Amino acid sequence: MAAIYSLYIINKSGGLIYYKDYGSAGRMDTNDSLRVASLWHSMHAISQQLSPVSGCSGIELLQADTFDLHCFQSLTGTKFFVVCEPGTQHMESLLKFIYELYTDYVLKNPFYEMEMPIRCELFDINLSQAVQKDRVALLGR
Amino acid sequence: MQFFGGSEISPSPPAPTAAGNNAHMMYVFNRNGVCLLYREWNRPLWTLNAQQDHKLMFGLLFSLKSLTAKMDPTSAEKGNLGVPQLPGQGCSFHGFRTNTYKLSFMETPSGIKIILVTHPKTGDLRESLKYIYNLYVEYVVKNPLYTPGSPVRSDLFNTTLDQYVRGIG
């Protein structure tokens, strides 16, 4: 049983730059993951328009019937979101940690072009370690 | 509390968690996207005019529903993205939270959508939405003068609703 189902990273214009699946039923194909990512980008923007008070920065948590979606937006507009089991705790800190990994292993990589899909081996390794550690922590409770 | 087919409103609504008015606004849409009811209690910010605002809200819910139906990690057969879902079909959602508000959403089998926007710290409002739906059935649907699909104009419903929402924590 996976606590985290998948992870997406989208750039500031809504393009999917990273997608990793950790065992959801019926893996999404590439086209669908791109569509879902840009759809989330627009939903995030619309939710800011509908805010009854000013200063809204978009959806942080979406609670669906079978999963929770936690979203973290960095100051530059890059959005990180994880799909996890309903009621999973400590996802904000995991997202912040993934953001740290992104700054360390992706942004500081001289061969990485901004806003382009992420292909960095070190990022992959460290990310899977982080998610694995998170899973162990979840199983331990 | 009875949800469907109950002829009596439950005598004790779900206990409000704290005193004070935390609700910002509420929308009721029918299955065609007509805004049957809009109430607001505390809304300092308007970015659009009323009609555009209702359309945008309905569009957001519609798209979020197709998004959750497509993302559902527990089923392999999800169909195509953007195909309209019947009420109760596919994976839906019951709310989302931003840093400034929390939106709670309920859809009935007949396609009535009830949306309550509250303070982000409010708890789970699913029971409250069911109670509001019961109020709607009692005061609106059972009113013989009410034409289905037309905006709700019932003072009795509005006052009862105001009273109840004021108690939601």
From TrEMBL, chain A:
A Pfam family that the UniProt record links to this protein: Sybindin
Subunit record text: Part of the multisubunit transport protein particle (TRAPP) complex.
Family, similarity comment: Belongs to the TRAPP small subunits family. TRAPPC4 subfamily.
Ranges in coiled-coil conformation: none
Name of the featured protein: Trafficking protein particle complex subunit
Organism in which the protein naturally occurs: Acacia crassicarpa (northern wattle)
UniProt-listed InterPro entries: Longin-like_dom_sf (IPR011012), TRAPPC (IPR007233)
One annotated Gene Ontology cellular component of this protein: endoplasmic reticulum
Gene Ontology BP terms: endoplasmic reticulum to Golgi vesicle-mediated transport
UniProtKB/TrEMBL annotation, chain B:
GO CC field: endoplasmic reticulum; Golgi apparatus; TRAPP complex
Keywords annotated in UniProt: Endoplasmic reticulum, ER-Golgi transport, Golgi apparatus, Transport
Pfam families registered for this protein in UniProt: Sybindin
InterPro entries found in the cross-reference section: Longin-like_dom_sf, TRAPPC
Main location: endoplasmic reticulum
Family: Belongs to the TRAPP small subunits family. BET5 subfamily.
Protein name per Swiss-Prot or TrEMBL: Trafficking protein particle complex subunit
Species: Acacia crassicarpa (northern wattle)
Lineage of the organism: Eukaryota, Viridiplantae, Streptophyta, Embryophyta, Tracheophyta
